[in-house]
Amino acid sequence: MADSVFAHIVRAPEDPILGVTVAYNKDSSPVKVNLGVGAYRTEEGKPLVLNVVRRAEQMLVNDTSRVKEYLSITGLADFNKLSAKLIFGADSPAIQDNRVTTVQCLSGTGSLRVGAEFLAKHYHERTIYIPQPTWGNHPKVFTLAGLSVKYYRYYDPATRGLDFQGLLDDLAAAPGGAIVLLHACAHNPTGVDPTVDQWEKIRQLMRSKGLLPFFDSAYQGFASGNLDADAQSVRMFVADGGECLAAQSYAKNMGLYGERVGALSIVCKDADVASRVESQLKLVIRPMYSNPPLHGASIVATILKDRQMYDEWTVELKAMADRIISMRQQLFDAVKARGTPGDWSHIIKQIGMFTFTGLNAEQVAFMTREYHIYMTSDGRISMAGLSSRTVPHLADAMHAAVAKAA
Amino acid sequence: MHIQQQSASPSADRRLSVLARHLETSSSVAAKQWIMAAPTSSGTQSVFAHIVRAPEDPILGVTVAYNKDTSPVKLNLGVGAYRTEEGKPLVLNVVRKAEQQLVNDRSRVKEYLSITGLADFNKLSAKLILGADSPAIQENRVTTVQCLSGTGSLRVGAEFLARHYHQRTIYIPQPTWGNHPKIFTLAGLSVKSYRYYDPATRGLHFQGLLEDLGSAPSGAIVLLHACAHNPTGVDPTLDQWEQIRRLMRSKGLLPFFDSAYQGFASGSLDTDAQSVRMFVADGGEVLVAQSYAKNMGLYGERVGALSIVCRNADVASRVESQLKLVIRPMYSNPPIHGASIVATILKDRNLYHEWTLELKAMADRIIRMRQQLFDALRARGTPGDWSHIIKQIGMFTFTGLNKEQVAFMTKEYHIYMTSDGRISMAGLSSRTVPHLADAIHAAVTGARRGVTGY
Predict the structure, then answer these.
(1) What is the DSSP string of A316-365?
(2) What is the pLDDT of residues A301-313, one digit of tens each?
(3) In this complex, do B319 and A18 lie within 8 Å of one another by their Cβ atoms?
(4) Residues with Cβ < 8 Å from A161, sequence gap 6 or more?
(5) If B121 and its partner were Cys, which of A20, A91, B288, B339 is the partner (CB 3.0–4.6 Å)?
């Protein structure tokens, strides 16, 4: 019998983030805590489907006049319009001027990939600058799309905050026209965001060098609890009349994770360009998966277009954001109460689902071994995975890990 | 060109000059050169100004034109989606049932699937295409990953091959689905074709196919339509499949099956999978892209699976790990809803059985339309041999009509179809067959329509 034509294929390493949950599942300890997961958990540690999502879904499925025909290549039209309004603001001049093209994609990843493939094909500069650190999948998405990836300084371990000078220096040294990935809010994995003033300086610098902004907006409304506040950075760039890309995800803010709902918007100088750009986006999407999935986008459109459901959504969204913020406060208070050495204020200064604790790989390994705390080795913890019940255990673990090193 | 008012503000100018001063005192000279109005700042040209408008997709363009037509006798035969006798889209009863079950189950959540998708769905899909008793499955040498319908499965498979397979050329039949060459090219493969359709016979150009595959470089990838070839409806016979298999195995050509119509073509799930199973039965390696768009009517939910049948379980496992590296940077993990519907149906004895009945009903209606159209042309004495209408199989018929005849039929009879002469039988009904037969007859005989104005 002949050999396999795939015999030479090397086993790919397991995804590090997913590996955390694999290890967690194997652990039989009753006090184990999974702080690796990038998905919201309730106080009871359970996944959450928003009430408004269940309602919308029921409505859709009970409507026997609904069919399952192919969406167009660019997806559900309503969904696209409503998504653009959500991120850019209902009164956005860019939308009114018809110079925004929005296409439905597969959550954030899919939106980033389609945007990047479009840029690799049509944009004059093939380099994208991404923050150091950033979500582990970012460099892979861009590289496979055909872009070349460089980094700009972002996180300062010394302050556990933003290395603003480093950021400005690195972007200033980038070639004119280069693409720059910006986390719209709730930077993943650090939770460190620029202030509004800092965003303004970043905007001015980028515009002066013709750097093309590509926003990754995965946490709108989920970070601060306010949809408009979390979109400020994006809107600032659109307000100056310039061009930008924005990848939106509904995975976290609508809890639609597995339904893969997202949108890519490209804000162009004028309507004619936007229209031509859209025609070319179709040529990226069609050979990738033809047209996007119907179900999740229909849920989003149902909610966004209905006044009451939209309001209900904002209330449930704020509740999730508030719970995470309260976990931050509780953890901070707990490590303070234990007199754990060090400045832990970054826990309450950082924003969004994740906290970059500042713990190193050895400390993390210790916490996993001795306290059954599961987290990524870069010291990132998901606040969404915490509850009032488990905060004390985590604080004990951190205290022990830090005291051990001291 | 649109210019925002803000761009001319004195404060912006002030800010720019402050920035310029800042950069004068700091590092690079190069930075200074870029301070002036650059492409993405306001008041300047679009960085996308040079982008050319892409042509409209030809197949979708047919429906666009159809929608614009106000004639009461218009007929859309371009659409590649099933229509009922009433000309309406169909959601299978068993699909509605499964969906209700899922959505009413409040214990269900919407967490991310794993990169490879819903495990049940994958196992059941492999069984469906390869057969529940397939030794390849029992030997654990099949890896199956959930993908976005047929297109997504083809793209993921092709990107995997482009990265890991030693031969980067894929041979596709002439003609084939319009999207095939684009998928493979964007995935990184180089595309060649092999002869397939013979316009003279409106059947298979079998000799040409064997010659072209016979002269392909050893190890090349070959795309095979598992059944119901799109757009021609022309399939090899079992004997011809066996010859194709032997030739391909003798040259180490790697089969990549596109299975978009299992059960939908003949009405039998097993019959429509025979070509695939023949290749798997010889112990060799195979890729298969499965779609549930047509046979479960799940079009817009984008449900499909890519299976790679390998020599042994260890290879299959390593292959799966590498497939994840293709999927993760594309869309991370696949959508949950459609695959859950499929899994619900496939794993339940009763639902599965109901499905096979509804599937057969769709296939039977299409076969009836073929017979009715054939009979109608015969009744009109339309010149030519129209037996290909009942010999071809699946959703589409390659009528053999040329571009001019198609344009005539659109103009005079409001028949919408692709210019290659392909019609979707699914778009026909007993009520509209006579009108189509009239149109074909008129086009072929060169007759002009009896009334003026339309």
Answers:
(1) HHHHHHHHHHHHHHHHHHHHHHTT-SS--THHHHS-SSEEE----HHHHH
(2) 999 999 999 999 9
(3) no
(4) A155, A192, A346, A349
(5) B339
What is the structure's pLDDT at B56?
Answer: 85
B297: left (phi over 0), alpha (psi -120 to 50) or beta: left
From the candidates B9, B36, B112, B154, which should be mutated to test the interface with A, based on the most A CB atoms within 10 A? B112
b/e map A131-167, b = 16+ CB within 10 Å: bbbbbebbbbbbebbebebbebbbbbeeebbbbbeeb
CA diameter of chain B: 90
How many Å lie between the alpha carbon of B319 and the closest alpha carbon of chain A?
7
Nearest to B285 among A4, A64, A69 (CB): A4
Mean pLDDT of A78-83: 98
E strands, B310-414, where?
396-398
* Residue B5 in this model has a pLDDT that exceeds 90: no
Q: Is residue A193 flagged as an active site residue?
A: no
**Chain B residue numbers touching A266 (CB-CB < 8 A):** 48
User: Do residues A291 and A69 make contact, with C-beta atoms less than 8 angstroms apart?
Assistant: no
Quote the longest CA-to-CA distance of chain A: 68
Q: What is the pLDDT of residue B450?
A: 42
Q: How far apart are CA B153 and CA B143, in angstroms?
A: 13
User: B236 phi and psi, to 5 degrees?
Assistant: -65, 155
Nearest Cα residue to A99 out of B441, B103, B48: B48
Q: How many Å is the Cα radius of gyration of chain B?
A: 26
Interchain proximity A137–B328, CB inside 8 Å: yes
Residue A231 has pLDDT above 70, yes or no: yes
Predicted pLDDT of residue B18: 52
Judged by CB atoms closer than 8 Å, whether chains meet at B301 and A241 is answered as no
Alpha helices (H) along B381-451: 388-391, 403-413, 433-445
Query: Do B234 and B392 contact (CB within 8 A), yes or no?
Result: yes
Nearest to A371 by CA among A30, A26, A18, A17: A30
Distances in Å between the Cα of A150 and the Cα atoms of A147, A173, B332 are 10, 12, 22
* Mean pLDDT value across residues A377-396: 95
Evaluate if residue B32 carries a pLDDT over 50: no
> B82's torsion region: left (phi>0), alpha (psi -120 to 50) or beta?
beta
Whether A396 shows a pLDDT value over 70: the answer reads: yes
Q: Closest Cα to residue B417, out of B72, B54, B174, B80? A: B80
What sign does the CA torsion over B382, B384, B390, B394 have?
negative
Partners of B81 on chain A (C-beta within 8 Å) are 69-70
Whether the predicted model's global pTM rises above the 0.90 cut: yes
Indicate whether B36 pLDDT > 90: no
CA–CA gap between residue A194 and residue B447 (Å, rounded): 74
CA angle A56, A60, A61 (to 5 degrees): 120
Average pLDDT (B158-168) is: 97
Counting one residue from A and one from B, how many pairs have CB atoms under 8 Å apart?
314
Average pLDDT in the A258-279 region?
A: 98
Q: 3-class secondary structure for B52-73?
A: CCCCCCHHHHHHHHHHHCCCCC
| Nearest residue in chain A measured CA to CA from B285 | A4
**Amino acid identity, position A169:** D
By the 8 A CB rule, do A3 and B313 touch?
no
Closest by Cα among A112, A40, A51 to A314? A51
pLDDT in tens, B196-238: 999 999 999 999 999 999 999 999 999 999 999 999 999 999 9
Distance between alpha carbon B373 and the CA centroid of its chain, in Å?
26
Alpha-carbon distance A122 to B47, whole Å? 9
Which among B447, B445, B12, B422 has a CA at the least distance from the CA of B177? B422
Distances (CA, A) of B230 to B92, B177, B179, B182, B196: 23, 6, 11, 16, 11
Please determine, for residue B75, whether its predicted confidence score (pLDDT) is greater than 60: yes
